[in-house]
Give the backbone structure.
Amino acid sequence: RFINREDEIRGLTLAALSKKHIELLGPPGTAKSMLIRAYAGYLDAKHFRWLLTQFTTPDEVFGPVSLQALKEGSYRRIPKGKMPEAQMVFLDEIYKASSAILNTMLTILEERIWYNDGEEVRVPLVFCAGASNELPPEEEGLAALRDRFLLRFVVGGLSAEQFGQLLLLRADGASSSECEHITAAELAQAQAEVVKMPFNADARASLQAVWEQVKDKGIFPSPRRFVHTMDVMAAYAWLM
């Protein structure tokens, strides 16, 4: 169904197993959104999907303000069907949203906490998939948000052979695959088994070596990224 997207599909699976967020970056028309939507269809989870623009309001993502609460002097949102209630979130063109939305996402993505009129609300988010056609400009101060997306994939084009396969796929009318749906219980069990995967001395030494190599190249990922990488390594080992 998807040509030359094996790495991205594996990345989505690792995101679900390790409860880490994933970014798909690439030009328009490379099936980023289509792939994420299709993958979400195989998970028995509550989904939230939204296309973000500079005109997207917080009401669209976090829910409208309760008029009844306003009458009582409170500024509370009603999150029914919105991001705070979702287990899997897909935000298309994520870096085009306003700072009012993106700043609120920081605690949701990292701590799974949403503040509704000052009340700390735990959210059921498993992972968020973000898609974008371009990187956010450095001057917009979105480094903290992007750092939340541990898994990052650059989605490229197709070779001549792969393009031929794509045309054949479309000509055959193939629109779905035979994968089974993953129930909530199955996913929870897999996640619990991933947490119990042993992280031995060899694995720690490998991660330490990577840290030293990238530092020597002048690349300084946050310590948080390396700690979270341990969860992804465990998920990958579990898959193998």
Observations:
- The chain is about 45% helix and 15% strand.
- Residues 139 and 173 are 45 Å apart (CA to CA).
- The first helix runs from residue 6 to 18.
- The two ends are 23 Å apart (CA to CA).
